[in-house]
Amino acid sequence: MVGFMQENGADLHVVAAYQDSALDERHMALFQRMLGEARTFALGSLKIGISSLEVEKGLTMLPTVVHQFKEIQGLDAAFGIFPMGPEKMAVIARSSARELDLGAMMRRLGGGGHPGAGSAILKGSLESVHQQVLDCIQSTKVEETSVRHLMSPVPEKLLAGNTVRQAADSLQKTGKTALPVVDDEDRFLGTISEKTIASIRQDRQWEQPVTAMLNREVPSVSPEDSLRHALLLMSRSETGLLPVILKGKLAGEITRASIILNMYSF
């Protein structure tokens, strides 16, 4: 099963958690079927998975199975639907995304729970209950937090006319790994980093304007972009933060840590 999980994209932490769990060979078989037959789709910027499967009578720990399924597939939320008897289906949901309130969703189906976990018992066939759950998910409005709510003022920035030496002094003073550079009208031009400064080999380079050593290929976001979009762009940032640009001007910055802490519960 470990090899199967890794082939399906599970990282080592997820594999270790699976190995430490109390799941047995019956759960392994269910996992394989879920991974092979589940449907995944987008709800806004969230990745959702839903799986409807017949299970062995008396099989317990189904919430753990759904949780592990979510982790293995890298989902924001997972829904499992399992028969509990003739025309009686258990719906189990797990989520790590703050944008979803699973408890509220399950209450719409006659069940309950809290934002990160919920369940319900529905009457009907596996196929009809699957459609009910799918309709419930797709009719849910995802309230996504925008960059505007977490952006902060830029504590230090450089002007295009500053020298590379002045940039090095500012980097050392602030402890930053890179600083934004703007023109006289606060238009964002790019960044200059410690890495660039460390590459200097000639004395005359210290007196050049920062624009001579500028990194202009810098990922940035607008105040109205979603946090998930910002986090995706953050993978291209070497500094752990992104400049926030409004009408071409530097309006603030947003950090990786602030995004992750806001999006997920720990």
Tell me about the biggest sheet? 6 strands, mixed
Assembly type of the shown chains? single chain
Note the overall shape: elongated
Spans of 5+ residues with little confidence (pLDDT < 50)?
A: 10-20
CATH class of the largest domain: Alpha Beta
Report the structural category.
Answer: alpha+beta
Q: What is the total tally of β strands?
A: 11
- CATH architecture call of the largest domain: Roll
Q: Helical percent range?
A: 25-40%
Q: What topology, given as strand order, has the largest sheet?
A: 1-2-3-4-6-5
The proportion of residues in beta strands is 15-25%
Give, in order, the helices and strands: HHHEEHEEHEEHEHEEHHEEH
CATH topology of the largest domain: Diaminopimelate Epimerase, Chain A, domain 1
How confident overall, as mean pLDDT?
Answer: 88
Number of helices: 10
Quick overview of this protein structure:
This protein has helices spanning 2-7, 12-20, 25-37, 62-73, 102-108, 126-138, 164-174, 194-198, 227-234, 256-263, and strands at 39-43, 46-52, 77-85, 88-95, 112-114, 117-123, 158-159, 178-182, 188-193, 241-246, 249-255. By secondary structure, the protein is α+β, with helices and mostly antiparallel strands.
